[in-house]
Please model this.
Amino acid sequence: MKHVYITVKLVLVAWLIAPLTLSADEGMWQPHQLPAMADELKAKGLEIDAESISRLTEFPMNAVISLGGCTASFVSAQGLVVTNHHCAYGSILHNSTPEKNLLKDGFLANTFDEELPASPGSRVYVTEAVTEVTKKVVTGLDALKGNAFYQAIEQNEKALIADCESGGGYRCQVYSFHGGLEYYLIKQLEIRDVRLVYNPAGSIGKYGGDIDNWMWPRHTGDFSFYRAYVAKNGSPADFSEDNIPYQPKSFLKVSAKGVSEGDFVMVTGYPGRTNRYRTANEVENQFEWAYPEGKQLRERLMEIIEETAIEGSDERIKYEGLLAGLANYAKNFTSMIEFYGKSPMLAERQDREQQLTNWINQNKQRKQRYGETLSVLDGLIVQSQQHKERNLIVGYMRYTTMLPTARRLYRLANENLLEDMVREPGYQERDMIRFKSGMERIDRRYAASVDRAMLFEMIQRYANLPGDERIPAFDHAFNIGTTLDEVALNAVLDSMYANTQLDDLDTRLAWMTKSVDEFKASQDPFIKIAVAMYDTDMASEKKDKALSGKFMKVRPQYMQAIIAFNRDQGKPVYADANSSLRVAVGHVKGYSPQDGLRAQPFTRLEGILAKDTGNDPFDSPAEQLELIKQKQYGDFYLEAIDSVPVNFLSTLDTTGGNSGSPTLNGRAELVGLLFDGVYESIIGDWGYDPKTNRSIQVDSRYMLWVMKYLDKADRLLDEMELVYE
Model:
């Protein structure tokens, strides 16, 4: 491992100091890479110093924040935060009831006192430092293998994190780049008091619903506002009426002028995961098995929720967030499957691997270093797929609530027997606020009828697995024989849901501090299953970690070869997305989704009129429709389209996690919020195509138009600094 580390540093340094030619807008770049691209970025349209983008404690990067799954940004000196409507969805639902449905009707706080606590566990993370720590993570571990190697890496990461968080108020994490070739310690200020300030009505913020999701043309006002609060001394604190708005070191100005076709744009944010360096074997399995199976399971869970929870009921409100997430990825998977079938992706990956093999074999030193890497990696990939049917079904049981909750609580009791630094990540003292928040969120995200129906479905599917794929402890816990007795299973589940007390918040919180013996003595049916399954769960986890440890040895070698090969071919190298802070650059540009069609880069207010049916999800507020008919454009008119732009397209290279990311012009002014991509670009997680990869942004002019003319959010407009030139 030491040899791999030294070699990759030489390769990456050589690449960073070499001239770069960014002929396309591909790449999710780490901020420290941007100064090497300064000339190209300037030529594209960047007006600020590229060096400033690499300094995380300065403007504009210190104005860009993470919500832990979505991106957001400060837009005032009083801690006002703008993000996507769908990123604030959980908080909107948390504060909604059938009588006061904020999701449907919208919400606007007219004073600081009216701002509502966000859903439990909501956070604002401000990245303050990124430190390369590869040597501290991997040095001295060469001789270790499998689970021992995995545990040693984890222990080194925990030590770095503990030291980073020692001053309090920060959340730190070690991120792996290039499959484990590099490790970076990322330090973030963790603001724990987050409040909902404003969200437009669902008929604006979620306009078009699942029908328009991933589609163009689009007319969605996907924006909402939070505010970050801290203690009076400026330190992060839990919710308190005595807290005051956080004062960020920088905030983004909001452009009322916006952008035009062809303009430079960049996006800063926290993209989740991409898979651009995965092998042909992994591509084939994902597209020909995992995506089709996952799509079918998600669609079935959606059906169960819709069949079980009546629309408009409290039960349905609790599951609207899950429904939206399931629908989003069901459509995502559909697109993946469709475009994979039309594309030469698999053949291209196979060809790339053959070219890589040929390149390795052309040089004795390369052959000695990488000669067995691809075959070893493929062997591990095959091994990881051995129980994929079972793993998928068991994995989807996480969408239920009671069973995973019982297992997490019992795991916590066992972890509490250990010294804090030895505990599993997620069960350390640093995790307990998050753990408690997870217990609290259940009240607004759980209904017994829906949970039971989903668990029944998953157990049915599990019971149809071949006998050698079944888990004896699970079979015994649910009294599953050679064949499934559905009547008996229904009776078991009826009894479990009738007799559990884990649906009560105080009970769940009390179990967080109980002993292993108290769990073993419990008669709660879900806790009894958690206890019965524990040894099996731990054995399975140990086996998985051993396999992960093997991957962590060989994947860096594979990526080292890929980096050296790409460099030799004159191709740029950037790490796959991993939820860390990245920057992408591009331009406002339309595209051609198919022969004979040209998608324009902007949609207009009049498109809302054309789509309106009066029925969800195309049921714009009557007042909005009237304003459009009257051509009330105000200061947000764009002459080129003779209207106010609603959404726009860009060539920015983005993925999930970028939702809510500020889209900036060359002066780093906010001109939009990224919230989606076009249908043809979904497969971009596996490879960027400059012809069809397009991100969708809500235009800042539409956001301001809705705020000014429809929702009368004058307090917020006055608070932000708007730029008209």
The chain has a mean pLDDT of 95.
